[in-house]
Design goal:
about 220 residues, alpha/beta, Rossmann fold, 4-stranded parallel beta sheet
């Protein structure tokens, strides 16, 4: 396995102090907090303290964390967050492969007094070949295979006037497109990882055992 050499431009992932959290250690020489423009820091603080959407989102997130830290699931946290920002209509941008999980989540939202609106990733039913994907790159070559359509998912939920949108298992990249085109704030319930049962952290926890292939520099650079 190739080793990573000296980091020429270290950032937060190379910090061993993490003093920005509790102020109980020292900042390293490359600290982003120390080098941050004070005007930008103050601008962010004023935004969080304000009454506009960003401020309400920030305070609701902090309240949910403080009240329920380690006590409730992410599913419940989304409900608690939605209640605190006054969200009623909850958009669900779901993967085709997680529709059963989405049905359960929609049921939970209804029990919480919220209104789920689900949009499947295959909405619009556009064949992959029509957007330039060759037949051999389909999961089942030689057949009609709808492309994921995160832009239409987002725009359809925009038309539904959702207050908060939740991603359920969209593919890497499709989640980026959905978030880019969503008018409502976006959070995530499930992050797709087919290999780990949708728990991407498993690959990090097993980096020196079952997932050690990830440390192969040549392989990773050829992905």
């Amino acid at each position: 396995m190739a080793k990573v050499g000296k980091i020429e431009d270290p950032s937060c992932s190379e910090c061993a102090q993490l003093n920005c959290y509790r102020h109980d250690k020292q900042y390293p020489s490359f600290c982003a907090t120390e080098s941050a423009d004070p005007a930008l820091v103050e601008e962010a603080r004023r935004t969080y303290a304000g009454d506009e959407l960003d401020g309400r989102l920030a305070r609701a997130a902090a309240e949910v964390e403080g009240r329920f830290y380690g006590k409730i699931s992410r599913c419940e946290e989304i409900v608690a967050f939605a209640h605190r920002i006054g969200a009623q209509r909850i958009g669900i941008a779901t993967c085709f492969g997680l529709i059963e999980e989405t049905r359960l989540f929609a049921k939970i939202l209804r029990l919480a007094g919220l209104e789920p609106v689900t949009m499947l990733c295959k909405v619009g039913s556009i064949d992959k070949e029509s957007i330039g994907i060759p037949d051999q790159l389909k999961i089942k070559p030689g057949s009609f295979e709808a492309a994921c359509n995160p832009i239409l998912q987002a725009r359809s939920l925009n038309a539904e006037k959702t207050d908060l949108n939740v991603i359920v298992g969209l593919c890497v990249g499709h989640d980026a497109l959905f978030t880019r085109h969503s008018e409502a704030p976006v959070t995530t319930l499930i992050t797709k990882d087919r290999l780990t049962g949708h728990n991407p952290a498993v690959a990090l926890y097993t980096l020196h055992s079952y997932s050690k292939r990830i440390l192969d520099r040549k392989r990773m650079r050829e992905l």
